[in-house]
C-alpha cells in the first residue's frame, strides 16, 4: 500500500489515462510494482550517498 502523494510517490494517475482499460492488468500492475521498487531503491541509494558525504 502506498501512502502519501508527494513527489516520487507511486500513483496510477501518473501512468494511466482516464477512461483507458488495460488489456492485461495483472502484467501492468506487476511492471508498475517493479518500477516502484527500482525507484525506491534509487532514492535510498541517493540518500545513503548524501549521508556519506
Question: Describe it for me?
Answer:
By secondary structure, the chain is mostly helical. The chain has a domain at 22-52. It contains one helix and no strands.
β-strand number: 0
List the total number of helices.
1
Q: Per DSSP, what share of the residues sits in E-state strands of 2 or more residues?
A: under 5%
Low-confidence stretches: 1-5
- From the N-terminal CA to the C-terminal CA, the straight-line distance is 32 Å
Q: What is the residue-mean pLDDT, rounded to a whole number?
A: 77
Helix content: 40-55%
Shape: elongated
Helix-strand string: H
Rg over C-alpha atoms, rounded to the nearest angstrom: 14 Å
Structural class: mainly alpha
Characterize the largest beta sheet: strand count, sense, and whether it forms a barrel: none
Brief rundown of the structure:
This protein has 53 residues and is mostly helical. The chain is 53% helix and 0% strand. It has a domain at 22-52.
Write the layout of secondary structure elements.
Elements: H1 25-52
Salient structural properties:
53 residues, elongated, disordered N terminus
Amino acid at each position: 500500500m502506498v501512502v502519501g502523494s508527494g513527489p516520487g510517490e507511486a500513483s496510477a494517475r501518473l501512468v494511466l489515462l482516464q477512461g483507458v482499460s488495460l488489456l492485461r492488468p495483472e502484467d501492468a500492475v506487476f511492471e508498475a510494482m517493479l518500477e516502484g521498487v527500482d525507484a525506491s531503491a534509487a532514492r535510498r541509494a541517493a540518500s545513503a550517498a548524501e549521508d556519506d558525504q
